[in-house]
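Hi there,

I know you've been waiting on this one. I reran it after we fixed the sequence typo, so this is the corrected version. Both the input and the resulting structure follow.
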Amino acid sequence: MLLALVAWGQEVADSSALSSIARNIDEVEVYGKRPLATSQTLRGTDLQALSTSSVADALKYFAGVQIKDYGGLGGLKTINVRSMGAQHVGIYLDGIRITNAQNGTVDLGKFSLSSMESVSLYNANKLDNCQSASEYASGATVYLRTRRPAGDSVSVQLRRASFSTWMVKANGQFAWRGWSGFVDGEWTDSRGDYPFRYHSEYEDTTGRRANSDIRYGRIEGALFKGGFSTHLYYYDSERGCPGGIVRRLSDKYINVGREWDRDFFVQASWQHEFLGHHRVKANAKYTNEYLRYCTDYPENQNTARVDNHYRQEDGYGALCYGYMPWPWLSLSASYDVRYSKLRADLKRFENVFRLDQKEVVAAQMNLCGLQTAASMLHQHLHDFTFVHAGAADPLDRWTPAVSLAYTMRGLTLRAWYKKIFRAPTLNDLYYTQVGNRNLKPEYTKQWNIGLEWHYTKSQTSTKSQFSNLNSQISFDLQADVYQNKIENRIVCLPLKGTYTWSMMNYGYTFCRGLNATAQGHYLRGNWRFSLLTSLTWQKDLNRTEPDDEDTYDKPICYSPELSYTLTGVAAWCQLSLTVSYMHVGERMWSYADPEDILKPYNNVDMKLSYSALIGKTAAGLCLEMCDVLNEQYEHIPRYPMPGRNYKLTLTIGL
């Protein structure tokens, strides 16, 4: 985690820190040359300075993002962007999607930031001139880009944290004859037995969180050379799945559930430019996932006993072609195919196979400050089963997207429209006694108008005959007004009695809002200051049944009207201090009672880091204090977060 700060401290000692940081700012400009998309990015020292451990921790600082966290280090962490739902967000690692055909969600807590160069969020299409068809197929996309090593290094990281948490992490990097790569491994063990207090008008419950432990190991590696890259990933964990806090019963259910995960994937990508105007890219990936969920324990006397095993395999391939006949015009076409297989030992559940094909044609123009882009995506999904009821009907849909932008004197005005759908997951369609083979796809229509402004200024002033004082200041501002409409929402409702739920299309939602972000960086000599802010205001309303006074025009559950973050970073030579503040407004979580409101909360994190170079050895020490105010807020009712906790991390690098 501290290698970036260690390297930065070394460069300051070598009187070249300013040039290194200037290169980072130049990277921001390179990414910013595509203003058609509404995008947010954290990279380099800004990413490392945050009080973060996983990708989910970093994404919570973006505007328009809601992270659902079921509490504790082992709690499931999913992302919701502009209230569209986790299934509408595509997660990409080095340009290839991380998938889950079973339930459509990705647990972001499984991915570490230690090997990441940048984390980006796009609300519209990213619009590279040669990208896969699947990248056009989500309402929002998250891009995780791994670091390309420039030299050889080895580092070891040790962490001791609250609630009996231990972590050991090792990272090795190399660069040789045009090849580069890394190997990154991590082992973590946490008891997760944090104290809590649940206080309301009718109850006051205190205790310690039970069955919130986790033990996991992760190892991944990557190789790069020119336009070729490959990535291998393996994750193995066992965790407790604690239940909600219930008055007088908070310590009764010692074992509510246990979960075992084994995830493996290997992927490769190759791209090549030829004849100056043509570009081709090929992607391939194989994924194998195993999940076991068990509640069959003597202590769970009032809990349904299950011991289910799920096995999922996924094969993926893509071919992309881009052509630039003139510098101002880009044309592209891509074809993706994905084959998914799900097996489970549930009663009356048979193997399910899904063939998912996508094709896209796209065009972009950039002339005299005017930028336009248009794409047409075709998706065809076909499921196969051997059960008597048969598979769901195939899906065959075309969906368009259009973007327009104009740039003048550093200011960009943009607008875009995108129509997309998400197909029902295999759980939605085939889960025993719950699945509904007649489900329709969930359609999303998005409109967006925004502006973006960048400013950078550098100067060198002579203090004396022998020394210079360098300084640089930069600002990045953007704001977007948006509107989303979602039709045929897929929900789970008790249609056959209290204990028998069914999936169905029910719902029409209307969302309008404002996202705004601002980033400022100031460098002067050995000092560095950064200020990162984001704001989200939105009205996400249920427009399903006009005659239902209890639900019509009421806020969607778990959707706050106002949230914002403010992060400040101050660094001098090898010393860095980061303070992050986040506010999330109240959220409704049930229509049954207007008083069912999750209270607003404020979260403050602090991080103090110091790095030093001793000979050829780089050493770093980091102290983090999370939830300084000890609010123990909730993302989900009766699942309190851990409250104030500490992390002490030691890093040694060669």
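Quick highlight: The two ends are 14 Å apart (CA to CA).

Best,
R. S.
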